Amino acid sequence: MKSAVVSVVLLVILVAWPVSADRKDLPGAGGYGGDDEEEDTKTWFPLDNQLSLSYYDKICPNFEKIVDTKVREWTKTDPSLGPALLRLLFHDCGVTGCDASVLLDHKGSERRSPASKTLRGFELIDDIKSEIEKSCPGLVSCADILTSASRSATYQLGGPYWPNAYGRRDSTNSYARDVEKVPSGRRDITGLLETFQSYGLNILDLVVLSGAHTIGKAYCGTIQSRLYNFNATHGTDPSIDPKYADFLRRKCRWASETVYLDAVTPVVFDNQYYINLQKNMGVLTTDAELVKDPRTAPLVKAFAEQPPQMFRHQFGVSMAKLVNVGVITGEDRTGEIRRVCSKSNSKRY
Questions:
Q1: What total of structural domains would you count in the chain?
Q2: 106: which residues sit within 8 A by CB, 6+ positions away?
Q3: Residues 28, 143 share a domain
Q4: 205 marked among binding-site residues
Q5: Parent domain of 265
Q6: Is 101 annotated for ligand binding?
Q7: What is the pLDDT, as a whole number, of residue 6?
Q8: In the predicted model, what is the mean pLDDT of residues 238-250?
Q9: Are 130 and 219 found together in one domain?
Q10: Which of 120, 213, 255, 259 has the most CB atoms around its CB within 10 Å?
């Protein structure tokens, strides 16, 4: 009976797609710099975030096709790039918003932070940008490319397809100190929830987006303290299933080694992650905390017990919210459309 009640609650709080009205005009067309047009842009964008599902329909109609093709080409050679792109997007949006600041590569940038050293996918984004510049020079931002590429990678892995509204511009600034804002695998639920709420996301989004750990790997260096010196005891975190803990200790003798975040179906985008949590098989501290905390445990239980389609659907809903966090648009007039994703047009470092 309790399980049924939890499932009903979950169904009730599922949120609707955050879809912007289509843009009817495209004056100025963006360009590399700011948009100097003086028309009232609010008539094109009824919602505050100023993004549109049809932003590139006229000015770069092949944008998403180019992105899909390039992602498929690269992930065919290296399947691990799919989860890497999703992680790269999380690290971008989780710092100053979805503004491609993580792509800037200069001394003191987010990308140069020690916390970013395991991020991957930069070369793929550069390749996409280079290809798009041939067809639509100066019109497509790196922020929109990263947003689109992450969705393509997720979908190609069997995840959901969500509507992406476009029109983001790229940040001209990137600071390594800001990387501290990205939720850490060692944070407690209260800290994570406070971070998510600062993005305008809720506890459901926290649990659902944590489900991205149904694919991908973690570096052993991030979990060795749980395995070899939990709370300075020189022992293993007792909350980990003993057999699974033994497996992890054998896999993680070296910090540079990696381990799948989902030991059962590591390359399938499904709800197995939540089933694993119910069995005390969470890899990261934050994974384990989700099933312990009374605020999140009922949602973990519901996603574990319901068909995987429910998780996929809600993941798409939460992602459509995440990619709208802290965006820069033409109306802000503070961003740019970079010529090269790793370099600002307007600044020299």
A1: 2
A2: 112, 174, 343, 349
A3: yes
A4: no
A5: 201-321
A6: yes
A7: 41
A8: 95
A9: no
A10: 213
